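Example 3.2
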Amino acid sequence: MLLSSTAKRISSSSSSGSLSSLKHLLSSVSIRILVLLMYLIYLINNVMFIHNKYKVWYDNIIISAQSRDLLGYYEIHHVLPKSLGGTNCSNNLVKLTAREHFICHLLLTKFTTGKAKSQMYFALNMLRVSNKYQDRYVTARVYEKLKKTLSKELSSLHKGKTVSAQTRALMSEKRTGKESPFKNKTHTNEVKEILSNKNKGHTRNNKDVVEKITNSRSWYTHSEITKAKISAANKGKHDGPRSEDTKSKISSSLRGRKKPKDFGDKISKARTGLVHSNDTKQLMSKRAKDRTKISCSHCNKVVSPGNYKRWHGDNCKFKTL
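Structure, written as tokens:
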């Protein structure tokens, strides 16, 4: 029907001898055919596209842009985005103003579904970026909605994915030899206070949280090379005695916490068959010998500070009333 009516209009225009009118008609026909082809693509890909008011607005902008000569600054837009199967052919390219270009990409997020919708949000996010080629201004409301939607789309996109051993090796190779950007730096007191307040009230011992962390790292074990690096990095380090303030914080955080029933069994199982090397035995012996000893005035035994506090001094069974 469209082709027959078009043929009649071309015939009448030719008979009138108006060349400019014929050119205008042909241009109008090509635009209509392009829109028709786009609509057919929409029907074929009905999973991706929804025929709603936003699609109508989008089509109107495209038709208007293709029937004019835009002067001054313009940007090239793919009528059917390349990520959705569009090409660089002239029929799929249109000149738009910067404002029209942004609006078109915003409209594309309104009449697409599924993976196509995610792709259109990523394209819109890149369009808002300012650089030497383009300068954008996005309202606060649009920016907030865009960032929230992108966060959800990225979360669903990466949910359930695991990094392959090959990718982990590439990441490790890329970072090898590079110093941490935070090396030799310390947080200011203000930042420390912010971090402290942010972490207060976190239920790190919540069973669900612990189980989630455990499951997320169940596949991971340190390689022998990594173990050797950790050991070498920690050699010679000594935290020294804790301050009374630190001891008080640790005590208050642990107060009232109950160990699980299988806690002792797990430790016993983990240490069963464990044999210390001769170097470790010598180190343990040296530390024990260098440890401060305290003499009990009631039983005259020389013991470690921990034993003295628990069993001697005012708690000594030989203390006379």
